[in-house]
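Hi team,

Filling in the usual template for the complex we talked about on Friday. All components are listed, including any nucleic acid strands or ligand strings, so the model treats them as one assembly.

SUBMITTER: L.P.
PURPOSE: interface mapping
COMPONENTS: two
RESIDUES: 1027
SEQUENCES:
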Amino acid sequence: MIRKEINKISEVGKALISVEGNPGVALNHVVELLEAESGQSLSFAKAINITEDSTRFQVFNGTTGLSTRTKIRMHEVPLTAGFSTKMLGRSFDGSGAVADGGPEIIFEKEVSTRLDTLNPTVRNVPKQALWTGIPMIDVFNTLVKSQKIPIFAGPTEPYNRLLSQIAQGAQADVIIFAGIGLKFDEYQYFKDQLSQSGNIDKTIMFTHLAGDSQIKGLMLPDVALSVAREFGDQGKDVLVLLTDMTNWSNILRNVANYQDMIPSLQGYPGSLYSELAKRYEVAADIEGAGSITIIGATTLESLEDPVPDNTGYITEGQFFLENGKLKLARSLSRLKQGVNGKTRSDHRAIMTAMASLLADAEKAHEASEVGAANDPYSQKLLRYRTDFIDNIEEPFGEPIELEAALDKCWAILKRHFDPTETGLSKKLIEEYWDKN
Amino acid sequence: MNDINKKRTGNLISIQDSLVKARFFDDVIMGETAEIAVDGKFLQAEVLQILPDPKNADAGIVEMQVFEDLTGAKIGDEVVFKGTPLSVLLGPGLLTSVWDGLQNPLYKLSEEDAYLKPGMNAPALDEEALWDFTPSAKVGDTVTGGDVIGSVPEGKVDHKILVPFSFGPCKVESIIEKSSVNITQQVAVVVDELGNKRELKLAFRQPVKSPIPFRERSIPKHPISTGTRVIDLLAPVGYGGTVGNPGPFGAGKTVLQHSLCKYAVADIIIMAACGERAGEAVEVFKEFAELEDPTTGESLMKRMCIFGNTSSMPVAAREASVFIALTVGEYYRYQGKKVVLLADSTSRWAQALRERSGRQGDIPGPEAFPMDIPDQIKGMYQRAGEDLGTKGSLTFIGTVSPAGGNFQEPVTQATMDSTGGFWGLSQDRADAKKYPAIDPLVYTTSVYDGFVTWKDRQKMLSTLNEANDIDQTISTIGLKKVPVSNYVQFQKGLTIDFCVMQQDAFDKVDACTRPERLEVINRAVQNLIDSDISFEADGMDDEQLKEMIKHKFDELRQWWKDWNYSATTEEQLAQLPNAIDKFILQEEYAV
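RESULT (copied from the run log):
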C-alpha cells in the first residue's frame, strides 16, 4: 500500500507540529515522521486538532531535530498497542516499543488504545478481598479485587516502597507496571524488587523516565492499560501499578498549555477530572472474564491540589502515607464493605471503634500541644494514640494474617481502655475481650 | 415549523476533541440534534452556536458538541441535521431501566459488545413488551397536551398515558378498547384544530431542555421520611423540595445517596449517575434489585430507573443526562407520582459545561467555569417542585463535589443559592468515621415542622451547639477548669450526637429510622436535654466526679447503641424512653 505523504511542516513547537491545509488525515490517526533526505523514521505522531486550514499533531519522540522539510507519512489508522503474552518479563517505553535492549517481539495482535468505556452492566460487583498482610489495609481499609486506589504521599515519602510491597504480596496473574516521569533509581528499584520476589516473569514494565519525551509519558498509561485490559478480557487477574500520576497530570498540563487550552485550576486543563477518570475507570471485575485492579501513586504537597483532589473523587478511596505511616484518618477503601462483613464477626466493629477512639485521641493530642488534656481519660487516649501509630499505622514489617491483626487490635484496646469506653457492643466484648 | 422531511446536511470543517464545526448551505436550528457520519457510523451531536462563514457568504458555520468519541473523523464528513432538539422517550418501561446518559439501554447494548463503542445505539424502551392498556378518554372528548387518555400497569405503578405535551386542543377521533399493546402501536387518533390527524402511542418524545409545566405549583412542606435520622430530625426535605449535598471526597456522599435510594418513601426514584464512578451505579442496579422496597415489598429496582453516564463516558453526554433524568421525573410528577431524583454529581455536570465553554473559547468566570454557571444551576433546581394540580412532586437532591472540599467554590456557592435544603458533609466528622458526616451544625432546611416540631429541633440543636462549644473549651483550657455542670451538658450533647445523629448504614435495623421510631427517640432526647441529673459526689473531687460522669454516660451510650441495633418491637422501642428516665434518676436501667 502506498501511503500518502505530506512534504511541508508549517509549524514546529514544543511537542507539537502543524501543517497547513487539510491533508485528509483523521482525528487521532497516526502519522510517521521521516527525515527528508534519508527517509529514516524519526518518530510517530498523532493528529489531535484538524481544521480545513491546518492540522496539528502530537509528536511522540519530541520535536527537537525536526524541520519544515521533515516528511509526514500517513498511516490512516488510530493508535494501537502491540499485544503478546511474550511481553511478560520485558520492558517497554511509553509507546509500547521494546526498551530493555532485548529482541523485538512479534505481536499476536494490535489492541485499541482508545480505552472505550466498559459497559457498566458487564461489571461484577467487587466482592473478593486482596489481602496484603498490612494490618492498616487488611483490617481498616481492605483492598478489593478490581479496586482503583492511589497512595497519596508527599514527594519524599516511601510510596514506591509501599507500592512494591503491596504488589509482591498481591495474588495477581499479571502485573503491569506503568511508571511515568520516574527517576532511574526508582525504575531500577522496582525491577530489583520484582526480580527478588520472583514476580518478574509475570510482570510487564512500561517506563517513562524523567526527561524522556513528554508525549510518550502522556500516552504511557493508555498503552499499559490497553495491554492490561486485553489480559483481563482473556480471563486474567491483572494488577496495574501507576506511578506517579501527578507526573502524568503535569505532562497533561504542559501539553494542554502548548495547545493554548484555557486553564482551570493551577494551570491544569478543565478536563483533568475526565482525563484521570478515563484511565482509572479501566479497573473492573469483568463478567465472564478477568479483572483489573489499579493501585496508583499520587504525590502531593497538599490534599487540596487539583491532582489528588480530582483523583480522590475518581478512585475508590486512597491510602494516605505520612511520615512513613499509613494514616487511618485520611485513608479509605470504598469497597471494603463488600468484603469485611464476611470475615470475623468483630472485624467491622473493631474497625469502627478504634477509628472513633483515634479521632478522640487526635483531639486530645492537639489539646496536649497547648498544655491541655491533663485529665486521666485524655492521658489514656494519648497512650493509645502512640500505640496505634507504632503498631497499626506502620506499613513496613513482617506481613500478618487478618485474624492475628484483629487480635492485635483487641490487645491494644485492652491495654488502654475499659470495655464500656470502646463503644463496642456487649456481645462482642464478652466474646473477645478476655481472649486477648 | 421546519420541513422535517427535507434532508438538511453540512460538512465538517473543524474537529477538536468533542467540539466540531461544519459548513452548511440550508438552514440550521439552534439546539437541534445532528448525526455525523464517521467511518460508516453515525455519531450523535447537538448544535451549540450558528455563525457566519467568513469564506463563503452563501454558507453558514455551525458549532456542535458531539456525544461520542470522534476518532477517525475527517474534514468533509457529512452532518445530517435532525430538526428536533435533544429529547427523551417517555412511556411505560422507563422503570427498572438502566441507560447511558443519552437513554441508550445498557443491557441491550451489552448484547452487542462488552465495551461502549462510538455509534452504538438501541431503542430507549423495549418495543416488544406488551402493556395492558385501559382507555379513559372517549371518542369526541377534547384533550390537550398532558391530558390522560388511558393507563397501563407498570409493575405496581399506575402509568398514565398522556397526550404529548406539545399538543394543543384536539378531539379524540378513535381510541382502542382495553387491550395489550406495545409502544410502537397506535392507541388513539386525535384531530387538532386545523384538522390535522395525529396518532397517539403509549410513548412519545419530549425535549429535555425546557421543563414540562406544572398544573398548580406549591411550596414543598410535607417531609419525606428518608430513614436517616439527622436528616429527618434536623434537616428534613419536603416532597418537591431541593437539596444540595456537598462534601469532600470520602465524606460519605455515595453511601448517603444509596441510603436515600433504599429508604426514602417515594413512588419513584431516578438516579442520574453523572460523571461518577461506574462501580457505584453498578452496585445500585445489581444489588438493589435484590433488596425490598419498604412500601411495596417488591424489588427496589421496580421503582427506580438509572442514567449511568459514568466518569469515563463522553463528557458532552454528561450535561444531557441530568436534563434527561429531570424530564423523566417531570413526566411522572405530571402523572401524580412522588418522584425523588438523585443527581450525583452536579459538579461533574458543571465541569462538563466548563470543558465545553473552554473549547469554545468563552471568556472564563471564576475557576474557569462559564460566567452563567449560577444561572444554569438555578434553572436546573427550579425544575423540581410539588404540583397540587396533579398531586405529584419531583424532589431533587444533588450532590456537589467541591474542589479541595472548599465550600466557597463556584458550584457549591451557586447550589446553596438555588436549593431549599443544604446538607453539608464535614471532613472532620468523616475523618472520625462518623456516618452520616452531615454536620448537624451546617445545614439548612425549608421545612418548618418536620417529623418533630420546630421547637424540639431547636432544643436539640442548641444542645449540640453548646456541647461543641464546651468541647472546644476543654480542648483549649483543659478539662480541669471546666465546671461539672458544663461537663454534664457536654456529655448530653455527645450522647445525642453519638446515638442519634450517627447511624450505621450497613446495619439492618439501624440503617433506617421511620417516623414512629423517630418519635420515640425524640421523646428520649428531649427528656435527656431537659433533665437536671444530680450525680452523687460523696468524697470525690471534681476530677473523680467527672470521671464517674463520663463512665455513666459511656454506659448509657453503649446501651443506646445496642438498642439502635436491636430494638424492633413496640415493647423494645418503649425501653429507650424508660431507660432515659431511669438514667436521669440514676437508677438501674439495663435490661
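MY TAKE: The first strand of chain A starts at residue 5 and ends at 6. Residues 347-435 of chain A form one domain.

Thanks, L.
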